[in-house]
Design a protein that fits this description.
about 170 residues, alpha+beta, five-stranded mixed beta sheet, four-stranded mixed beta sheet, 9 strands, about 20% helix, VOC_core, methylmalonyl-CoA epimerase activity
C-alpha cells in the first residue's frame, strides 16, 4: 500500500460584503500581508475571466478580490461579489461546508478583544482544553462580515497530541 503524501494548505477563500473594510480588518487586526490589493475581475475572454466562468458559471458579470497571506504563508482570497449578502444565520455548522477557520495567538483574550473592538463578535467565553493542567485555550469569534473564526493559544499539534477529550466516552 502506498502512503499518501500530506499536502500543504495553500489558501482559503472568504466572501464578504465590503472588500475594502475586510482588507483593513485582516491586515490591521490579524496582521496579514496584503499581496494583491482589491482588484475588479470582469466576465470576459481573458484567462482569469474564463477560469471564473468555469467556477461560477455564466452570468457572474464581475467581482472584486484581494489576496492576503498569513504569517505562515497560507493564502487568503477575499471576494466581494455583486449583490453580496450576509446571511441571517451565518453559523449553520450542521450543513456540509467549511464553517470556520482558526488562527493561533498566545494572547487569545487580547486578540478576541481586538476583534470585538474592530466590529467583530465573541461567540462564547474563552475556554481551556485542560483546566488546571495546561494553558491551551480557544474561543469562537465572528469577523465584522459574518465569517466564523476560532483562536487557539497553542498549535494544533500540541493541543490534540495530548489527547484532547480523553475524558469523553470512546466512540462506539
Amino acid at each position: 500500500m502506498t502512503q499518501t503524501y500530506p499536502r500543504s494548505f495553500s489558501h482559503i477563500g472568504l466572501s464578504v460584503t465590503d472588500l475594502d473594510a475586510a482588507v483593513r480588518f485582516y491586515t490591521e487586526v490579524l496582521g496579514w500581508y496584503l499581496i494583491m490589493p482589491p482588484t475588479t475581475i470582469n466576465e470576459d475572454d481573458s484567462a482569469i475571466g474564463v477560469m471564473c466562468t468555469d467556477v461560477f458559471g455564466a452570468g457572474w458579470t464581475s467581482f472584486r478580490i484581494a489576496h492576503l497571506s498569513t504569517g505562515d504563508r497560507v493564502g487568503v482570497e477575499i471576494f466581494e461579489f455583486l449583490n453580496a449578502e450576509r446571511p441571517a444565520n451565518n453559523f449553520e455548522y450542521w450543513k456540509t461546508s467549511v464553517f470556520h477557520f482558526c488562527v493561533q495567538d498566545p494572547d487569545v483574550e487580547g486578540l478576541a478583544a481586538k476583534i470585538v473592538a474592530a466590529g467583530g463578535k465573541q461567540r462564547m467565553p474563552v475556554r481551556y482544553y485542560y483546566p488546571g493542567e495546561k494553558p491551551y485555550r480557544m474561543v469562537y469569534m465572528e469577523d465584522p462580515f459574518g465569517n466564523i473564526l476560532e483562536i487557539y493559544s497553542h498549535s494544533y499539534e500540541l493541543t490534540y497530541s495530548a489527547g484532547a477529550y480523553q475524558s469523553a466516552a470512546p466512540a462506539a
